[in-house]
Amino acid sequence: MRITKEDSLVLLIDVQEKLYPHMNNKEKLSQKTITLLKGITALGIPLTAARQYPQGLGDIIEELRPYGSECYDKVTFSCCGNDNLIARLREAGCKYVIITGIEAHICVLQTVIDLKALGYLPVVVTDAISSREQQDYEIALRRMEYEGAILTTVESILFELCREAGNEVFKTISRLVK
């Protein structure tokens, strides 16, 4: 089964001002997330974001804000606890929800489980998610895979969504991943 841009939506989870500084490998996380968001912008794939309790944890980090203005606030760990976000997924008609964000073992994991239960296929971009502790991250990946998520990387998903070489989008993505 090939993941297609026409059937996809990207979900950015909780990369917020007061959470992000505590993430393991945060510099790599930021770089990979920006690469992913630039690539999906070039591909024309819709992006939506979620923020966990923004009054306490702040907004999406500044360097990611230019890539999308559609953001849903939540107090549940799973993004699927926000009815407006679920309505957005239904409106988009997507089959695949490509996931980037934090923390892997809490909000990302619970969102993956709930998306799968709702009939979506979660695609977790493993180098664009993180947790504070490496062990939490690793166990979360195992659990997500067990729950039926597809695990991938930024470079892999961007080229899969691009599908072919020889066009401007391919050139943009090639430059981004180098």
Strand order of the largest sheet: 3-2-1-4-5-6
List the helices and strands in order: EHEHEHEHEHEHH
Describe the global form: globular
- The amount of beta strand, in percent, is 15-25%
Secondary-structure map with pairings?
Blueprint: E1 8-13, H1 26-43, E2 47-52, H2 54-57, E3 71-74, H3 83-92, E4 96-102, H4 104-117, E5 121-130, H5 134-147, E6 150-152, H6 154-162, H7 168-177
Parallel strand pairs: 1-2, 1-4, 2-3, 4-5, 5-6
Helix pairs in contact: 1-6, 1-7, 4-5, 6-7
Note the main attributes of this structure:
178 residues, six-stranded parallel sheet, 7 helices, globular
Report what the structure shows:
With 178 residues, the protein is of the alpha/beta class. Helix content is 44%, strand content 20%. It has helices at residues 26-43, 54-57, 83-92, 104-117, 134-147, 154-162, 168-177; strands at residues 8-13, 47-52, 71-74, 96-102, 121-130, 150-152. It has a 6-stranded parallel beta sheet with strand order 3-2-1-4-5-6, with helices on both faces. α1 links the parallel β1 and β2 (47-52). The relative contact order is 0.19. The model has no long low-confidence stretch (mean pLDDT 96).
